[in-house]
Amino acid sequence: MAQFTRKELKSDKFALEVQHSVEYVSEHRQQLIRWGGIGLAVVILVVAVLVYRNHEHSVRQEALHQALQIQNAQIGNPIPNSDIQLFPTEAARLKAATQAFTDIATKYSGTEEGTIADYFLGTNASDTGNYAEAEKRFKEVVDSGDNAYRSVAEMALGQVYASEGKTSDAEKALQWVVDHPTVLVSKEEATLALGQILKTSDPQRARKLIEPLRSSPRPAINRQAIAEIAELSQQK
Q1: If DSSP states are collapsed to H, E and C, what string results for 154-169?
Q2: Contact 151/117 with Cβ under 8 angstroms?
Q3: Which residues neighbour 220 within 8 Å (Cβ) at sequence distance 6 or greater?
Q4: For residues 144 and 34, what is the distance between their CA atoms, to the nearest angstrom?
Q5: Higher pLDDT, 4 or 186
Q6: Which residues, 6 or more positions from 40, have their beta carbon under 8 angstroms from its beta carbon?
Q7: What are phi and psi of 16, to 5 degrees?
Q8: How far is CA 227 from the centre of its chain?
Q9: Four-residue CA torsion sign, 11, 53, 8, 38
Q10: CA 12 to chain CA centroid, nearest Å
Q11: Rounded Cα–Cα distance for residues 214 and 219 (Å)
Q12: First to last CA, the chain
């Protein structure tokens, strides 16, 4: 799927920003994996493609494009005669991105772009430890009525709940995705995430969930499952 979408998205300005988003996620994978699961980079790419293909929403797309530019902007001093957007600090970039996504979520509530803005607001809030705001935003996505977007948000909610020690709530959120896999989050990804959540509270069940994934044909799932089983074995 990745090769197909890259081919489709080569010549558009927004498409370039989509690619930049994926690059940003890849570079920050260890930090972001807490909130979106192992498929987060693919999730953001697919979500962006879905928006890109809906050409009649050009105004909302442009607003989202601008917000993504800020989200992916580099930190550093301004470069003379350059169009590269830079922010002096990470805090300044985060503040600007939060404002941009908030504007979209407020102005375009109920649209795909508004839903995606809520998702990014949730991830940014969770990155700063603002779990209450993260829950609020992810629940907005859950309530959007689109199961594909809901699956992404439920995955993120599961991680946030786990960070707060709300294991039961985390399990419910992730089990929903296991039972309702979508094009954005597969059953394998959700099962692995659920197993990771249960490693401490119920290692036996975690092993039962993760063990079959060691033979997954998907390399990312396969590698992670092997690593998780190895970790569970060391807990004995």
Answers
A1: HHHHHHHHHHCCCHHH
A2: no
A3: 38, 39
A4: 23
A5: 186
A6: 25, 29, 32, 33
A7: -60, -40
A8: 22
A9: positive
A10: 23
A11: 9
A12: 39
Are 107 and 140 in contact by the 8 Å Cβ rule? The answer is no
Structure tokens at 14: 């927004």
The helix/strand/coil state of 86 is strand
- Closest by CA to 47, choosing from 84, 75, 14, is 14
pLDDT top residue among 128 and 37: 128
Q: In one letter, which amino acid is 64?
A: L
What gap in Å lies between CA 188 and CA 192, rounded to an integer? Answer: 6
Instruction: Please report where in the chains the tokens 């990014």 appear, as a residue.
Output: 120
Q: Residue 53 carries which side chain, given as an amino acid letter?
A: R
Q: Give, in order, the Cα–Cα distances in Å from 26 to each of 43, 146, 186, 228.
A: 12, 26, 19, 21
pLDDT digits (tens, 9 = 90+) for 143-183: 987 888 999 999 999 999 999 999 999 999 999 999 999 98
Cα 116 from Cα 132, distance rounded (Å): 18
Cβ-count burial 125-148 (b if 16+ within 10 Å, e if not): bbbeebbebbbebbebbbebebbb
| pLDDT tens, residue by residue, 73-122 | 888 877 766 677 888 899 999 999 999 999 999 999 988 899 999 999 99
Q: Which residues pair with 75 in a beta bridge?
A: 87
CB atoms within 10 A of CB 82: 8
Q: What mean pLDDT comes out for the span 16-44? A: 45
Q: Does residue 206 carry a pLDDT above 50?
A: yes
What does residue 218 show for φ and ψ, rounded to 5 degrees? -90, 115
CA distance 20 to 45: 10
